[in-house]
Design brief:
2 helices; 72 residues; 31% helix; single chain; alpha+beta
Amino acid sequence: MDVEEGEYIVFEHGPFDYETENGTVGAKIEQAMKECDYEASGYVLDTTQGRMFYFYHDPKHCWKYVRPVRRK
């Protein structure tokens, strides 16, 4: 898949057992995204029309959210 060039922040968890850990891993990723201090990083989410958020879910490899950001 082609991903538009730009700056991104990635929230990722490595391999996990889908049957026993999927809910826990999902909750941890959601919490990390919620608690991310964009202000401290000097970035903000880039919600410009056309910018894409990417989600990868393959328990044998990772759970990953890739979110576009831009400098403040």
